[in-house]
Design brief:
Helices cover 43% and strands 16% of the residues. It has 328 residues and is of the alpha/beta class. Strand 7 and strand 8 form a beta hairpin. Bound molecules: nicotinamide-adenine-dinucleotide and (2S)-2-hydroxybutanedioic acid.
Length: 328
């Protein structure tokens, strides 16, 4: 029996993500928590004739506790999205506190759940979550994931004309680093099956993957950021975590993890000089079983991208850790 919970379930990502989870045969119970509107969202989804039993919760009447109790997988898209002109880091002020509060709830009511963080800035909110779980004495790095799947999905999509795949999702493209601008590093040289990108197209392609989020923010003209593609990506990652938990093998997903806590991650942390980094991770019954070091043998262009990413990540990570340990 799998219970999935969405925190921020009434939002732009939360609603379509909850729909996908409700439609999934892998989910038996679905808990929807938000500060508004979850009774309506839950009532609506509950009419769908799939197996998951849906319940909606608000903060009143111990809603967070009741939503989280018994959870196997908790996905967090709670928090404000960007408007044109903002960086993801501009969301820190509001979203850091939201993530901190919700993860405290997870520490209390679902300490063994897999925690999937979507709320931005992911580069900082994942370290925040880790520090909260550490303080509560329940941190298991194998169970905490920053969801960077949208970067992978974008990379698969944007290279289709070069990969030649009728179904772009069949190309595996590791996107590593973090989830904002230059910290996002697509490693096209490690794509499988491999393909060539014309030299004069490379920079623009990298830039499009790194700043794909801005493309959507601009197109939505103040009405928010990516929601539907993010719901697809968030569901794809959650589905992988659930399948692995159920015993399926050979599931590899790039995700932003605390490297020293994942087998094989220590070497990557030493090589990069950062403890949080997105790399392809082998998923298993207990979560992140192994971090795969994909950084060996990258091209010189990719090495430069990695250097810039690591520089940006350091400050983002420190900011998150500091928020919990030296409250403002
Ligand atoms: P949204 O404003 O449409 O929805 C956010 C929801 O969170 C709202 O329903 C709101 O009521 C809820 N919320 C706020 N405070 C809460 C709390 N304390 N507890 C529970 N719920 C709370 O925003 P959105 O478009 O769904 O985006 C959500 C977040 O996801 C943003 O931070 C955005 O930047 C981020 N995001 C991340 C990625 C990624 O790739 N990781 C992609 C897209 C968006
Ligand atoms: C994205 O990559 O689309 C999200 O992180 C949302 C954003 O702010 O761009």
């Amino acid at each position: 029996m799998v219970k999935a919970v969405v925190l921020g379930a009434a939002g732009g990502i939360g609603q379509p993500l909850s729909l996908l989870l409700k439609a999934s045969p892998l989910v038996d119970e679905l808990g929807l928590y938000d500060v508004v509107n979850t009774p309506g969202v839950a009532a609506d989804l509950s009419h769908i004739s799939s197996r998951a039993k849906v319940s909606g919760f608000l903060p009143k009447d111990d809603g967070l506790k009741n939503a989280l109790t018994g959870a196997d997988v908790v996905v967090i898209p709670a928090g404000i999205p960007r408007k044109p002109g903002m960086t993801r880091d501009d969301l820190f002020k509001v979203n850091a506190g939201i993530v901190q509060t919700l993860v405290k709830g997870i520490a209390d009511f679902a300490p063994k759940a897999f925690v999937l963080i979507i709320s931005n800035p992911v580069n900082s909110t994942v370290p925040i979550a880790a520090e909260v779980l550490k303080k509560a004495g329940v941190f298991d790095p194998k169970r905490l994931f920053g969801v960077t799947t949208l970067d992978v999905v974008r990379a698969e999509t944007f290279v289709q004309e070069y990969s030649g795949q009728a179904d772009p999702s069949q190309t595996f493209i590791p996107v590593v680093g973090g989830h904002s601008g230059e910290t996002i590093v697509p490693l096209f040289s490690k794509a499988k099956p491999s393909f060539q990108i014309p030299g004069d197209k490379y920079d623009a392609l990298v830039n499009r993957v790194q700043f794909g989020g801005d493309e959507v923010v601009k197109a939505k003209e103040g009405a928010g950021s990516a929601t539907l593609s993010m719901a697809y990506a968030g569901f794809r990652f959650a589905e992988s975590v659930i399948k692995a938990q159920k015993g399926e093998k050979n599931i590899l997903e790039p995700t932003y993890v605390y490297l020293p806590g994942v087998s094989g991650g220590d070497a990557i942390a030493k090589e990069t000089g950062v403890e949080y980094f997105s790399v392809p991770v082998e998923l298993g019954a207990n979560g992140a079983e192994k971090a795969v070091n994909i950084l060996e043998g990258v091209t010189d262009q990719e090495k430069k991208l990695l250097e810039a990413a690591i520089k940006g990540l350091k400050g983002n990570i420190e900011k998150g850790i500091d928020f919990v340990n030296n409250p403002p």
